[in-house]
Amino acid sequence: MKMWLSRDKREQRRRRRDLAAAIDHGRQLRREDRDHENLQFFEEAIQQFPESGELRLLYGTALLVDHPGRGLTQIAKATEKDPKDPTLLVRAAHIMYSMKQFDHSRSYAKRAKELASEEEFIFAPELLNLESNFAALDGEDGLAEEGLRLAVEREPKMESLARDLAKFLADRGRRREALEVIDGALSRTKGTKYLERLRAEILGDGSRESSPSS
């Protein structure tokens, strides 16, 4: 005997499917760096799915280019929509860190760590990367470098981790080591403009090379 879904269940299924499609499209725009050119899509999507933290995070990221204040507000709202999603919290923490909102970044990272064990958490290397960046902010360079290197070892194909390690080294005058990290990352992945840009910046700034004081 055939079982028919009720109208409500059919509507719920359709809504979940439409939400997944909207998120996929938003992520594609982010990967292609076209998200900030398609704000209308995100505005309509969050009106249709106001409960989605993921869509708000994508919308907030898109806004950061031209409207950083509004973007940060949307990212904060995303964490309120999904306060128990450690993956979303880590991504929000990284964005806040990049925008120098360090208190918010630390708070989101702390909440993510409390919600998921490191052994099982898919974003564990990125969480380690964040904690290492916090250590660098606190002047604990030895601890920071150890963590940044360990994060790269755990996820060698994640270029953002290599980028942060290379930047840490370059900022401390260790230009050759930074370039070795970037070249290693480029050999393991296709790379993106962010790694290439950092490489060009380091190559163009010979003053960062460690040398004896004259």
Shape: elongated
Major sheet summary line: none
Structural class: mainly alpha
Our measurement of the CA-to-CA distance between the termini, rounded to an integer number of angstroms, reads 89 Å
Number of DSSP helical runs:
11
How would you characterize this protein structure?
This protein has helices at 7-31, 39-48, 53-63, 68-81, 86-98, 102-115, 124-137, 141-154, 159-171, 175-188, 193-203. It is built from 11 helices and no strands. Helix content is 71%, strand content 0%. It is mainly alpha-helical and 214 residues long. Helix 2 packs antiparallel against helix 3 (53-63). It starts with 6 loop residues before the first helix and ends in an 11-residue tail after the last helix.
Q: What keyword list fits this structure?
A:
mainly alpha, 71% helix, 11 helices, 214 residues, disordered C terminus, elongated
Write the layout of secondary structure elements.
Blueprint: H1 7-31, H2 39-48, H3 53-63, H4 68-81, H5 86-98, H6 102-115, H7 124-137, H8 141-154, H9 159-171, H10 175-188, H11 193-203
Helix pairs in contact: 1-3, 2-3, 3-4, 4-5, 5-6, 6-7, 7-8, 8-9, 9-10, 9-11, 10-11
Characterize this entry briefly.
The chain has helices spanning 7-31, 39-48, 53-63, 68-81, 86-98, 102-115, 124-137, 141-154, 159-171, 175-188, 193-203.
